[in-house]
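User: Quick one: structure for sequence A, then sequence B.

Assistant: Sequence A:
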Amino acid sequence: MDAPCRIQAASSADLGAVARIEATAFPDPWSAEQFGSHLGDLFLVAVAAGEVIGYLVAWSVGVEAEILNVAVAPDVRRRGTARTLLTEALAKLGQAGVTSVFLEVRPSNVAARHLYASVGFREVARRRGYYATPREDALVLRREGHDGRDGQ
């Protein structure tokens, strides 16, 4: 990563910045209100130079979790922020007793697929027509065990 970032729990003060990043990353973005409904879940932000530059939202039930949303501001992508968020989230989920983590990704999102594979996610299913804009399947990925810090 070019400049170090700090990973911390999201707060209501972060929701505007998170929603702005979201709008640059996804064709059907969540609103600040939708993000606000996840403040009680695992919701991390990456902060550099006092600004939110990325986020990750996940929730868990028992030993299973799902990463719902992750994105990084366009001007700081491909510098390790998403990996840092992901490994921190996996570590926190592991500490909470989670042993299986799921997520969905577009087949066309090659960069994200490479990142997820590099930390141990493997394809387990395909959801046909899952994404609406543009219409695309979703690959369901799962990662078993590990705390996220070993890259496996």
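Sequence B:
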Amino acid sequence: MALTDFEKKVLKLLKKVPRGKVITYSKLAKMAGSPRAARAVGNALHKNPDAPVVPCHRVVKSDGALGGYAGGWRRKTKLLREEGVVVKNGKIVDFKKIAV
């Protein structure tokens, strides 16, 4: 599956999000130069050919809710918890403290 330049940029930026941290779809869109393209970020993550090397599980909604994940929300929760991120009822606990 071919990636657009925007999608490549999103995945490259995402690789910089460290373990134990999360970023929002909208912040990632802004960093990629398209602040209104949060949905396009989600589409780019869905095409991610290198998960979990490119850690799309670290991208969450702006309210701290998990959002989507190609591997399912249980897998996303498991990956985040393995990195020390506390998830409760489908949301990141202490979201403001661990958001990039």
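The longest helix spans residues 5-14. The first strand starts at residue 23 and ends at 24.

User: Thanks, that's what I needed.
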